[in-house]
């Protein structure tokens, strides 16, 4: 398992994966090489600060490893510091001073970065990168320089402030030059950084920066202006990888030029002038990496916006809901693919049109006079129902929910709407409503619908003194037909009888199937009982005609009973019961006829004949 790095970092290949002992050897070897290289780059005369990258490298190295490994790494660091001093001829006492100062600087910088800084954030946030440079590149050299200056000035009588400035400036410059690249490697790894740096435009930019850094100090009066300009340009095109690499490269080039004496006239001023020699370089190196971090944040923001826009576009186009956006002038500016697919248009045809152009006349009027004004007034509408039309003219029922979107200055920017196709939902609802009030076999109103109708007829009759009749019917010998010819033939017979009954209706009448072979009719607007008799006579005669079902010709008839409001009953229950009783009298009297209900008539009285 890879050792965990600091929060916000990705595991780095190489350093993070090697065994601890190998990591210690690697740290010691790298520290010795970098330190000796910095010493070779420094001037032998004068008091110009050594460009000290070794501590910065060690601080970054520590970040690759978990805190539990730091004790071993510290031991490796101590060996490396003592070895460097031995190679350069320092005595043991002086070596201990350098060990104390360098060791303290590395441990303090590593601890501050681990505790307070996010390497990932430092690559794309100016404040986070400034915190890295401050806590890792300024604070540790500040205090380590105090330790070293105190020890060295106390023993040899050298100037404390000059020693402190030389130590601080050399270490701070090394930290500033190396930490941005170190954080980049820590977060993205060697492979990603090398791929970024190897881009042609970045390589060209690094060549240009190197040329400017090598030329300007020798030929112009204010070289760092030119160097800074080239670094800023590279930061703009090379991102953080290019800027961090260029900053380190420029510091190395300036160190080489210093070692060759290119800055001789400037360096030969006084002790403090020599000590502060690299301060302008530090101020030159910091702004480009800050700019790169700022641009990384901008690029990240733009990338996220582009990704969000793409996600929204995909969601907008691929969602199964119909979606549309309308500008302040009430014209379509975008529609989803589902919108186009359902209505049969392509987007190019509808953009710039008004949504009302694709509505039925009634919905168009309602949308313009009610829904659109309410949306502008209240800011949203939910569940308003409209009816659109497809290209072929077919109606599409939709339920629309919309919001009003305002611009930063408070003006209307657009309205966004989601239209849910409820055509099938409404069809099923209408079908369920129809089935709830109609007989599934014959399509006639069912018992519920009839009871509702007779209830209203009674209320109206009492109020307006109207006369109406209930005609109760039953097919004669229907059980025999079912038993001999089958239920399928029986069902077809019921359908045929229902059609004949329905054909005799007046506009004000209603005929219902109560169940089985029982039918009932509500005949309104009667002037007398004789009007009901005329209707009954017509029904008996119409039904009695032979019915052809398949290959079978069936002779059928009905028995019918009549109850008239208010003579034979004043409530729905009484009228239905009395009409049923009259129907049974008709059956007992020979079928294929009708009878009026009469409480006074003896059971054996002859009924009126059809």
TrEMBL record:
UniProt key word Transmembrane: yes
Subcellular location as annotated: Cell membrane
Alphabetical list of PROSITE patterns matching this protein: GGDEF, PAC, PAS
Main location: membrane
GO cellular component entries: plasma membrane
InterPro entries reported in the protein's UniProt record: Biofilm_reg_signaling (IPR052155), GGDEF_dom (IPR000160), MASE1 (IPR007895), Nucleotide_cyclase (IPR029787), PAS (IPR000014), PAS-assoc_C (IPR000700), PAS-like_dom_sf (IPR035965), Rev_trsase/Diguanyl_cyclase (IPR043128)
Pfam families linked: GGDEF (PF00990), MASE1 (PF05231), PAS_9 (PF13426)
Highest taxon of the lineage: Bacteria
Membrane-spanning parts: none
Keywords of this entry: Cell membrane, Membrane, Transmembrane, Transmembrane helix
Protein name: Diguanylate cyclase
SUPFAM superfamilies registered for this protein in UniProt: Nucleotide cyclase (SSF55073), PYP-like sensor domain (PAS domain) (SSF55785)
PANTHER family to which the protein is assigned, alphabetical: BIOFILM ARCHITECTURE MAINTENANCE PROTEIN MBAA, DIGUANYLATE CYCLASE DGCP
Membrane topology field: Multi-pass membrane protein
GO molecular function: catalytic activity
């Amino acid at each position: 398992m890879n050792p965990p790095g600091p929060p916000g970092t990705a595991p780095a290949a190489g350093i993070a994966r090697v065994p601890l002992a190998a990591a210690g050897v690697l740290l010691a070897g790298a520290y010795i090489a970098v330190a000796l290289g910095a010493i070779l780059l420094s001037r032998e005369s004068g008091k110009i600060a050594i460009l000290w990258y070794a501590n910065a490298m060690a601080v970054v190295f520590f970040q690759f490893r978990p805190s539990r490994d730091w004790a071993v790494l510290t031991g490796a660091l101590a060996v490396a510091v003592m070895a460097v001093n031995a190679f350069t001829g320092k005595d043991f006492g002086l070596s201990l001073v350098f060990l104390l100062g360098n060791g303290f600087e590395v441990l303090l910088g590593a601890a501050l970065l681990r505790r307070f800084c996010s390497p990932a954030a430092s690559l794309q946030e100016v404040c986070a990168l400034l915190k890295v440079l401050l806590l890792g590149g300024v604070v540790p050299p500040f205090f380590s320089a105090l330790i070293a200056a105190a020890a060295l000035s106390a023993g040899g009588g050298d100037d404390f402030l000059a020693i402190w400035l030389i130590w601080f400036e050399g270490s701070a410059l090394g930290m500033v030059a190396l930490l941005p690249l170190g954080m980049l490697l820590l977060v993205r790894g060697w492979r990603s950084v090398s791929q970024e740096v190897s881009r042609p435009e970045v390589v060209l930019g690094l060549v240009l920066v190197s040329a400017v850094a090598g030329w300007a100090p020798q030929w112009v009066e204010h070289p760092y202006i030119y160097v800074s300009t080239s670094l800023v340009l590279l930061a703009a095109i090379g991102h953080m990888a290019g800027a961090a690499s260029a900053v380190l490269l420029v510091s190395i080039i300036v160190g080489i030029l210093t070692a060759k004496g290119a800055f001789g006239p400037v360096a030969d001023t006084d002790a403090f002038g020599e000590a502060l020699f690299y301060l302008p370089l530090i101020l030159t190196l910091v702004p480009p990496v800050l700019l790169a971090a700022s641009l990384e944040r901008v690029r990240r923001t733009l990338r996220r916006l582009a990704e969000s826009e793409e996600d929204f576009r995909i969601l907008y186009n691929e969602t199964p809901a119909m979606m549309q956006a309308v500008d302040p002038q009430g014209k379509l500016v975008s529609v989803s693919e589902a919108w186009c697919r359902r209505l049969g248009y392509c987007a190019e045809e509808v953009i710039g049109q008004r949504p009302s152009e694709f509505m039925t006349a009634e919905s168009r009027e309602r949308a313009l006079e009610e829904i659109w004004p309410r949306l502008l007034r209240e800011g949203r509408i939910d569940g308003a129902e409209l009816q659109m039309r497809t290209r072929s003219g077919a109606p599409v029922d939709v339920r629309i929910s919309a919001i009003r979107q305002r611009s930063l200055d408070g003006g209307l920017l657009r309205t966004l709407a989601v239209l849910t196709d409820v055509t099938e939902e409404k069809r099923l609802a209408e079908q369920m409503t129809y089935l709830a009030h109609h007989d599934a076999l014959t399509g006639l109103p069912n018992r519920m619908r009839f009871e509702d109708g007779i209830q209203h007829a009674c209320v109206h009759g009492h109020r307006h003194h109207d006369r109406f009749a209930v005609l109760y019917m039953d097919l004669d010998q229907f059980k025999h037909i079912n038993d001999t010819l089958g239920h399928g033939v029986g069902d077809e017979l019921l359908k045929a009888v229902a059609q004949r009954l329905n054909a005799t209706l007046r506009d004000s009448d209603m005929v219902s199937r109560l169940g089985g072979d029982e039918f009932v009719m509500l005949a309104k607007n009667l002037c007398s009982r004789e009007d009901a008799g005329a209707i009954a006579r017509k029904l008996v005669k119409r039904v009695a005609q032979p019915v052809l079902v398949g290959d079978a010709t069936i002779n059928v008839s009905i028995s019918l009973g009549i109850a008239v409001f208010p003579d034979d009953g004043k409530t729905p229950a009484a009228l239905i019961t009395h009409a049923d009783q009259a129907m049974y009298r008709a059956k007992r009297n020979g079928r294929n006829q009708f009878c009026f209900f009469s409480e006074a008539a003896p059971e054996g009285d002859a009924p009126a004949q059809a």
